[in-house]
Amino acid sequence: MSKLVSLVMAVVALAPVSRSAAAQANLSGQGLGFPTGQMSARAEGAGGAIAEIDPISLVNPAALGFIGTTTLFFQIEPEFRSVIVGNTKDNTTTARYPLFAAVLPIGANWAIGVSSATLLDRTWTTSTPSVLVLGTDTVNSTFTSGSSGSINDLRVAAAWAPFTYLRVGLGGHLMSGNDRLFVGHTFSDNAAFGNFADSSTLSFDGGAVSAGLELVAPKLAIASVSFRKGGRLNATRSDTALGHANVPDRLGFSLAYIGAAGSEVAIRTALDKWSSLNGLNRGSSHAVDAWDTSIGADIAGPHLGSQPLMLRLGGRWRTLPYEAGPNNNKVKEQSLNAGVGTTFAGGRVLTDVTLAHARRDANLGITERAWTLSIGLGIRP
To answer: 237, 276, 306, 372: least buried by Cβ within 10 Å?
Structure first.
């Protein structure tokens, strides 16, 4: 790869909105990517507030003890995003498959689970049209840069419930993924001017451990705490080491009221130590530690046949991992979520659907709004 291309790759890799405000950029794809949250569609329907006690979400390993029966779960999550710069609006769609889980109860007190969830998703494209004067010729052209990839979190975990009021869990995490960076320059008159394109793929690998504890007051409340301790995270390109950092530590708390039959009302907050990723920065983007707070409810509603229809509503407030713009402004996100869930085939098929609307802003004159549709399908063999 030429020195020119290497320089361009370094610039676009970690600063997709540092180009002109008119470019088709985004706020959520800074740095190593957007944090999907590692939550199930059910937990997302309540704004993430019940994630600490949700056995499908990859948040608290102690929550596996709530599974009850063997469950296989798969989730799809398309996002429909609009980036607004002044009177200009750019619409994009990103397809994600952020979560897979298999959970198996063993006896009355144990459960084990294997889950895979997206830690950071880095899919974006920036296109900048321009008019170039080359000698005596004037030609229209478009410069395109972008990224396609993610860092995934594979967790193997176990939970133990020695008493009705106590659940504990431990998990081991393998982080892996890749990120394909690409640049290109196309000309309207490609017979006279040759188009240009190049790409480079980065690979990531690392590990972490996690632990969780839940105190249960039957028919009243559940208090939960979870902690993930990050290990080393390496970045390579074509077997060449580019640098290393640490998987972010995370500390989360939640309190849920379960006094109404089949329903949960909860509040949750978590601190993610994203700044530990700064060892991998190759551009201007800077990672910051961030709080993620939500409040929501999962309420038993009317019945569909013999099964209840679960109604969910929640709000979420968080800071995204990477700052944006020349002054390193923090990117704030506010979202309102709503969802439904029920079971079919005698309780053997679980279906959860959530719609979330998010607004992201960094006081840069760029606003990002997104609709995310989360569809989760579970099977109990």
So the answer is: 306
- Please say whether the beta carbons of 89 and 82 come within 8 A: yes
H helix or E strand, kind and range, residue 207? strand 196-217
SS3 342: strand
Instruction: Kindly give the confidence (pLDDT) of every residue in the chain, 381 residues in length, as a single tens digit, with 9 standing for 90 and above.
Output: 343 334 333 433 433 443 333 333 578 888 899 999 999 999 999 999 999 999 999 999 999 999 989 999 999 999 999 999 888 888 888 889 999 999 999 999 999 999 999 999 988 777 778 787 777 777 888 888 888 899 999 999 999 999 999 999 999 999 999 998 888 888 876 666 778 788 889 999 999 999 999 999 999 999 999 999 999 999 998 888 888 999 999 999 999 999 998 899 999 999 999 999 998 876 667 999 999 999 999 999 998 888 889 999 999 999 999 998 888 899 999 999 999 999 999 899 999 999 999 999 999 989 999 999 999 999 999
Query: How far apart are alpha carbons 128 and 109 in whole angstroms?
Result: 58
| Token digits of residue 16 | 């997709």
pTM score, whole prediction: 0.87
Sign of CA dihedral 34, 39, 41, 45: negative
Picking from 12, 33, 174, the residue whose alpha carbon sits closest to that of residue 96 is 33
